[in-house]
C-alpha cells in the first residue's frame, strides 16, 4: 500500500531491482504486484537457490555486485537494498549505482 501511494505509475507497471536478493523470498512476493522484478546477489549459491525455487515469468535472478551493476541508466522504478550497505567496501559507491539505475 505504501509503494502504491508513492509511485505515480502504479505498481503493475513498475520495474523493481532488489540488491541483496539472497534466496528471493521478497522478490517472489513482489512479483505478484509489479511488472518485473530482478533480484541480484553476490552469493551465487543463493541465486541458484532463488532460481530453483521461484518460478514466475516476471521474476529474474542474477549473480552480481551492487557496486558495479550491469544495468543501463534509468532502468528501474524502484530499487530495494535491505541490509546490504553496511556489508560493502564503499556504501557511497553502492548508492551511486542505485541512483544511476533508478528512473527520475
Summarize this, please?
This protein is an alpha/beta fold and 104 residues long. It has four helices and four strands; from the N terminus they run H-E-H-E-H-E-E-H.
List the helices and strands and how they pair.
Elements: H1 2-6, E1 15-19, H2 25-30, E2 36-41, H3 44-53, E3 59-63, E4 78-80, H4 91-101
Parallel strand pairs: 1-2, 1-4, 2-3
What does this structure look like?
- The longest helix is centred in the last third of the chain and has 11 residues, at 91-101.
- Helix 3 (44-53) links the parallel strand 2 and strand 3 (59-63).
- It is built from four helices and four strands, in the order H-E-H-E-H-E-E-H.
- The chain is 31% helix and 18% strand.
- A four-stranded parallel beta sheet has the order 3-2-1-4.
- The relative contact order is 0.21.
Helical proportion, percent range: 25-40%
* Proportion in β-strands: 15-25%
What would the average pLDDT be, to the nearest integer?
94
Largest sheet: 4 strands, parallel
Biggest sheet strand order reads 3-2-1-4
Q: Say how many strands there are.
A: 4
What spatial form do the alpha-carbon principal axes imply?
Answer: globular
Describe this protein with a few key phrases.
about 100 residues; 4 helices
Amino acid at each position: 500500500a505504501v509503494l502504491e501511494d508513492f509511485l505515480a505509475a502504479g505498481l503493475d507497471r513498475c520495474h523493481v531491482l532488489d540488491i541483496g536478493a539472497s534466496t528471493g523470498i521478497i522478490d517472489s512476493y513482489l512479483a505478484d504486484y509489479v511488472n518485473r522484478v530482478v533480484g541480484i546477489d553476490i552469493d551465487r549459491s543463493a541465486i541458484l537457490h532463488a532460481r530453483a525455487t521461484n518460478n514466475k515469468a516476471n521474476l529474474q535472478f542474477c549473480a552480481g555486485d551492487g557496486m558495479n551493476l550491469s544495468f543501463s541508466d534509468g532502468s528501474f522504478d524502484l530499487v530495494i537494498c535491505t541490509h546490504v550497505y553496511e556489508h560493502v567496501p564503499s556504501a557511497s559507491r553502492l548508492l551511486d549505482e542505485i541512483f544511476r539505475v533508478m528512473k527520475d
